[in-house]
Amino acid sequence: MPRVPAHLREHALVMLQGGMRTADIAMATNCNVRTVRCPRQRYRETGRTADCPRSGRPRVTTPAQDRYIRTSHLRDRYRMATTTARVTPGTHNLSISAQTVRNRLDGGLVGLLYVRQVLTRHHRQQSHLWAQTHCRWTRQDWQRVLLTDESRFCLTVGFSFIVEGMSVTPRPVIWSKINLEVEGLSWSGDV
Predict the structure, then answer these.
(1) pTM for this prediction
(2) What integer best gives the mean pLDDT of the chain?
């Protein structure tokens, strides 16, 4: 459950001491009745409205390390999380994970969160070569190719295996009709 801001807790307590009902305060502050009752009960028991410390897993990075992660990715937005994780020491362990770096960047909405590695010069050359070899293909050549996004797909008839594979290029499906014939089974329909 998210923490209620301190000013809202104190405001609700002042309203309660002023004689307002709990339900009216909840409606005025746009929160649940229980959200008003719990700080009142805590104030009666402890004499303060501040939240009690919560248990939980300790953070792996300090606020200074969080700032370092943030500024390093502001300086170089193409820097990968794995690179930052390698050079940032943790408080409890010798290193932190790349997922921790992604979580810190996601919390501050900084940097580009990569799912895959950055394209190298070799990747760009291969992509250009592929485009050059396929630029003169006719419509008949392309009709034999099913273009999808980069996810796996599996078309089945009952429990019979027909096709499993990867896509050719990260583009949406171009043709809406496909015809498949494998091992005597045929399937035709809209994609």
Answers:
(1) 0.34
(2) 73
